[in-house]
Amino acid sequence: MRTMTAPPRPRTRPVRDPAPSKWGYRWQRWMLTPGVRTGLRVGVPALIVALAVAGWASNDANREMIVAQYAQAKAAIQHRPEFMVTGLAISGADEELADVVTELVQVVFPVSSFDLDLEAMRKKVAEMPAVRDVYVRVGDGGALEIGITPRVPVALWRTADGLRLIDADGVFAGDVAQRAERRDLPLIAGEGAEDDLTEALALFRTAAPVAERVRGLVRIGERRWDMVLDRGQRIMLPTDRPTVALDRVMQMEATQDLLARDVAMVDMRNPGRPTVRLQHDAVAATRNASGTGANN
Amino acid sequence: MRDLYETQRAMRNVRKAAMQRGVIAILDVGTSKIACLVLRFDGPGRMPQVDGIGALAGQSQFRVIGAATTRSRGVRFGEIDAMQETERAIRTAVQAAQKMAEVRVDHVIACFSGANPRSYGLDGAVDVAAGVVTEGDIGRVLASCEVPDFGHDRDVLHAHPVNFALDHRSGMADPRGQVGNRLATDLHLLTVDATAIRNIFFCIKRCDLELAGLASSAYTAGFSTLVEDEQELGAACVDMGGGSTGLSIFWKKHMIYSDAVRMGGDHVTGDISMGLQVPMQVAERIKTFYGGVVATGMDDREKIEIGGDTGDWERDRRTVSRAELIGIMRPRIEEILEEVRARLDAAGFEHLPSQQIVLTGGGSQIPGLDGLAAKILGQQVRLGRPLRVQGLPQAATGPAFSGAVGCALFAAHPQDEWWDFDIPADTYPARSLKRAVKWFKDNW
């Protein structure tokens, strides 16, 4: 049932009639496009952050501060005691070589292991002639370990530049100033001498009975050996099987004291016909002796 | 005819694209209000699919995510009268609905009530070549319908094949795959003024939207208010709008007749305004608050203050009794209903097995209307409200929204129309070369 009292006075004002303008409508539709919405939700904050960071970083002092702080943090970590290297431990080298290596690597302890360039260090040591192989590592207890496998010289090699040590592979293993320094090693000489070192060593072993008289081996024409003894004696060995030939000479020495005699050269180049050349004086003496004998 | 065929096919393709995207807008361009619903299609499968019509009458696959109404401007008798004003009103409604939905809408399906709809019943028949009816046969039989000369200034809005007959069997809904020799069809053709369609096209284009479909609001109102049995057995839906009263008759789930009376609620308001000498806005207000069609003794005693709005508030305080108001409203409503009665009689509504009449639209909210309508239209009259659809706001569930809701159902489940079937192949060759050339021109 409706009330009998008068209702509120009806309003007769013109109706407000809001409608979006064409551009307002388009703007709203554009803002409702999914791509634009995502762009606004994600892209705009990202852009603001990027701009703020860029603005802050455009100041030189700020950038330097960042760099300095980074370097400081890096150093703080690298210089922790866990990473420090305090000593050098060289193994496998004699004292002399160890001193040379210590001088070569030039590390001032204590140093952080991040600052050590182990690879370069290893290369530098490996380049040394006396070193056959080397490893460099930071080992337990903060020690820089350098393990050296040295070359073992087996012979001296006389070249135009001087005396050199060579090892069993024929590789240069160091310099020697004088022959007297390494009397224990046999001497070889001549062009291509280092290429056939095995044979040379075998020859030296064969010549053991006259070892104290042997001066060395000379490679002739990169083909065969001459064994030089003191008093200017020389044993010329063939290209093929020189050991056998030398063995025959040693037999002759043992039975007939061949080398103790006044021979200048024993020519074994033709194995079927060993030839002996006498010293110049010996030739005259022989001649005199035979002359005397003839006179008798 | 062929141009229209192409246009409608293009609109169907746009509709498909919109469904693919998942969002589509429904626009009800009415005389008193413009309503916009934004639908989101989630695709089938959320509800268990069953044979036949599915859960929630098959409407479970979409939900309304935005709804807005605005006062209509520039629309008279359901036709666009002032283009700029209508465009503004459409923008207002679409913007508000988009804002509620928080999504941009690009495709819109529009429905409107006016533009002098006129129904034609066509029939056609062809011999079935293969002995079994194929899709092509249906296209051919639809193309064989004799199209009447409805004038060059009118366009076809709907063309529903309502019935198929194969030899002596009639009343088939889907004859495909059936064996027979002669296939006949009945086609319901609804034409409207071409200018009205063109205006709506233009208005919607100016709002940066793309038209994905057009429907008559009498048809869509029937779609949403008539229950399934009524659609099957025969019923009429009377959509009492502001500027025109739409009328659609359904039988066997197809609209078989549609018409419109160019009178509606605005005319009632005009009568009150003239009769009581008050402005239109006051008249509208009085109508909605105190309106009625059956006067009782108590209505003589209920005084309504109408206000003179002369500025002399002390002296000029006129009142009318509610009985006087009813005395003004009733003749006009009777006139509208009698006009509807005449249209129904002309359509042969009394021959349908069931003669249910459903009143809907904003005008059907007048108290006592069902009693008055029962006297004029027949005993089987009820008031109808639109089907409930998911997500529809409470404010948009009233009978005034039956056209818009029906349009949403139409968007989700369009009935087969003539242009959904392929043109018969034998009409192709004459123009196929031209079409190819045109395609090249359009694309390069």
From TrEMBL, chain A:
Record organism: Loktanella atrilutea
Zinc listed as a keyword: no
GO annotation (BP), single: FtsZ-dependent cytokinesis
Pfam families: FtsQ_DivIB_C
Cell compartments where the protein resides: Cell inner membrane; Membrane
Cellular component terms (Gene Ontology): cell division site; plasma membrane
Domain of life from the UniProt record: Bacteria
Topology in membrane: Single-pass type II membrane protein
Origin organism lineage: Bacteria, Pseudomonadati, Pseudomonadota, Alphaproteobacteria, Rhodobacterales
Name this polypeptide is given: Cell division protein FtsQ
Record Gene3D superfamilies: Cell division protein FtsQ/DivIB
Protein family per UniProt: Belongs to the FtsQ/DivIB family. FtsQ subfamily.
Domain POTRA: 83-151
UniProtKB/TrEMBL annotation, chain B:
Membrane topology designation: Peripheral membrane protein
Transmembrane segments: none
Family from the record: Belongs to the FtsA/MreB family.
SHS2 domain residues: 24-225
UniProt entry tagged with the keyword rRNA-binding: no
Task of the protein: Cell division protein that is involved in the assembly of the Z ring. May serve as a membrane anchor for the Z ring.
Alphabetical keyword list: Cell cycle, Cell division, Cell membrane, Membrane
SUPFAM superfamilies, sorted: Actin-like ATPase domain
Originating species: Loktanella atrilutea
Subcellular location: Cell membrane
Gene Ontology cellular-component terms listed: cell division site; cytoplasmic side of plasma membrane
Subunit structure: Self-interacts. Interacts with FtsZ.
UniProt-listed GO biological process terms: FtsZ-dependent cytokinesis
Principal location: membrane
Top-level taxon in the UniProt lineage: Bacteria
HAMAP family to which the protein is assigned, alphabetical: FtsA
Annotated protein name in UniProt: Cell division protein FtsA
